[in-house]
Amino acid sequence: MGEGSKKCTKCGEVRLLKEFHRSNKVKSGRRSECVECARVYREANKERSRLYKKEYREINKEQIKIKKKAYRMANKEKISDRNKVWRAANCEEIKERKKYYRTINRAFVNNKKREYYRENRKDILRNWKQNKHKWRGSIVSSQARYRAKKLNAYPSWADKGLRLQIRKVYDNCPEGYQVDHIVPLQGRNVSGLHVPWNLQYLTVKENMSKGNKFDQS
After folding, report:
1. Which of 11, 23, 170, 215 is least surrounded by Cβ atoms within 10 Å, i.e. has the fewest?
2. Amino acid 89: pLDDT
3. Residue range(s) in the chain whose domain bears CATH number 3.30.60
4. What is the pTM of this model?
């Protein structure tokens, strides 16, 4: 056997060191059985291994919790960066999971929200008063989108990019002006869509005067 090889204690074959899993419990730094023999053993003992791991976790619950907490504290940035990368790569899957969870647990979620609001009402109201000027555009945009959906004026092909463009229009609305739909969502002869290119700024007086009218001339 060469220096870069080792004999497997299971199959008896001499293999390269890279064909053995690493281990800091043995002097050679590699496990005694080769990767292939380890895989065959795992496949043949799946249920036994599962039960052993479950029993081990139950017996060492507190110890495992302490180790996990210590690891998280020592690797905060690493874990945060890894989670950000994963969320960015799986944003649609996460969104669907959350939507599915809220659907099948609607009553539970609503009760939790109400409970949280009751317990934190003062903090929520204080935070709202302090930051409502920052959120104005976002809130008005969300309300407009909700109304547009009810009127079937919010396009089904709208993506996140379009929503951000609409929100930007509302965020940049000048003081004393309102965001108006050029072609009204409920026009008499024609109805428009809730999209960025159908939005304009009008003074309150101009908007009230315009109403649901659309000048096609």
Report:
1. 215
2. 93
3. 1-44
4. 0.41
3-state secondary structure of 32: strand
Can you name the residues that pair with 22 across neighbouring β-strands?
A: 30
Residues 6 or more apart in contact with residue 190 via CB below 8 angstroms: 183, 214, 216
d(CA 184, CA 98): 34
Query: 128: which residues sit within 8 A by CB, 6+ positions away?
Result: none
Q: Would you tell me the crossing angle of helices 46-59 and 61-74 to the nearest 10 degrees?
A: 80
Question: Quick one: which H or E segment has residue 21?
Answer: strand 20-22
Helices 121-150, 106-119: axis angle to 10 degrees equals 140
The structure tokens listed for 190 are: 């024609």
CB–CB of 141/166 below 8 Å?
Answer: yes
Tokens of 66: 């302490």
pLDDT digits (tens, 9 = 90+) for 54-99: 999 999 999 999 999 999 999 999 999 999 999 999 999 999 999 8
Whole-angstrom Cα distance, residue 88 to residue 50?
32
Mean pLDDT, rounded, of the chain: 85
Phi-psi label, residue 157: left if phi above 0, alpha if psi -120 to 50, beta otherwise: alpha
- Rounded to an integer, what distance in angstroms lies between the CA atom of residue 53 and that of residue 61? 11
Buried b / exposed e across 33-52, counting CB within 10 Å, b at 16+?
bbeebbeeeeeeeeeeeeee
| Topology adopted by domain 1-44 | Wheat Germ Agglutinin (Isolectin 2); domain 1 (3.30.60)
